[in-house]
Amino acid sequence: MIARLTNPLVHALAYSVAAMVLSVAAPGEARTEIKLRLTHSAPTSHPNHVAAEKMVQRIKERTNGEVVITIFPNNALGSSFETTDQVRRGIIDLTIVGSDNLDRYPEAKAIALVLAPFQFDDLPHAHATLDGPAFDFLRKQFAAVNMVMISNYEWGFRSISNSARPINGPEDVKGLKIRVPPVAVNKNTMEALGAIASPIAFAELYMALSTKTVDAQENPVSTIWASKFYEVQKYVALTRHIYTMMMFAASTNVWNRLTPEQRQIISEEGTKAAAEARKIAAEEEEMLIGKLKEAGVTVTTPDPVKFRAAVEPANAELRKVVGEADWKLWQAFVEEGRKRSKK
Predict the structure, then answer these.
(1) pLDDT tens-digit readout, 26-41
(2) Is the full-model pTM beyond 0.70?
(3) Is residue 239 part of a domain?
């Protein structure tokens, strides 16, 4: 009698091992199809998923059908924390994941620097930094947890929505009870601005906003629109206080089993797809800001210079966590990225 695999983790491991076993071919034989799984947290309408769908099709075509990637969006294989751990152990093959899912591992804690508040002037500055001087630094963080970073996808700058008042400066944030994700940098940033940070599950956030359990929340404009927070939040401030990126990465165990040619194709197409996701996201944000205004939302664009001094306590805390050496190195990356973005 054959026992059934009822444990999802065991089933996932069996699937991954079976897929990779099929890929092994004897010398002189044609390679067998390699089936890989890609997990991410975004819905199918998100630019990351749209770009990823095109990416996997191009990878299949360029490898002559040798590498076939199936995408599991919207955390279909588990939470981001769970799937990140499975990717690093080789149970799931590929992921598009945020830095906050890696910095909980002590050996990759320095990746939290990506989230330092008000460090980037705009998207070109963020992209020039993360794709340029900081790229190898980020890859080292992934390597430390048995993963290979391939390219930088998009999530975007975070903005604040609230039901109390327009936000034009740090003083307008003071006293607001704001929902934050379970990420230290976000919590410390809001508290430095004088807000009362409250951890609430994202699934419960709309109700918490509608009942005024909290006054505010912070997320990219795309999330504010998709989650219909504008129905219960009449003020949106484009604070752009934290830039959040998503990174396309592979399990090192899986990556090392691919041929050099296959790895090169995945890297090239991953980089191309990341650029496509960024372009779509930027165009979409401009459109959504217009839709928010049409829905009766008051949209403000505060001057970030006013905020930078106010969030210094949050940066000081981050500096302690990552250490002085990595902090100074990162600041050099940010400044170099600023110069590159203005050329």
Answers:
(1) 444 456 899 999 999 9
(2) yes
(3) yes
